[in-house]
Specification:
- By secondary structure, this protein is mostly helical.
- It has a domain at about 55-104.
- The chain is about 50% helix and about 0% strand.
- It contains two helices and no strands.
Length: about 100
């Protein structure tokens, strides 16, 4: 018999059942009604990685700057995509030219 099975049998661990909840005389949650925090409470947010940011939380200036930042990022992405597409087309043309020269 292996050691773990021996301990389970010897100490009666399989028969032992733990009750749910805190241990006896635990005073950690005294006065806590439970439930959700009050509306607008941001105490659980430490660094903002999991916070949902809604557009209506911004004031007018922040909204405008946020929209401008998004538009600038979109422009950069479109330019990068165009450059990649242009480079791809150039490579394709060079490949076709190279293939043509080999077969001639």
């Amino acid at each position: 018999m292996n050691t773990l099975k021996f301990w389970i049998k010897r100490y009666g661990w399989s028969k032992e059942k733990r009750d749910e909840g805190a241990s006896l005389n635990n005073k950690n949650a005294v006065g806590n009604k439970g439930g959700a925090p009050p509306e607008g409470n941001l105490n659980s947010i430490k660094h903002g990685a999991y916070q949902s940011i809604y557009f209506d939380m911004f004031n007018t200036e922040d909204r405008i700057s946020w929209i401008n930042a998004c538009m600038n990022q979109l422009r950069r992405l479109i330019e990068a995509k165009a450059k990649i597409a242009g480079d791809t087309e150039k490579l394709q043309l060079e490949k076709e030219r190279f293939d043509f020269q080999i077969h001639v």
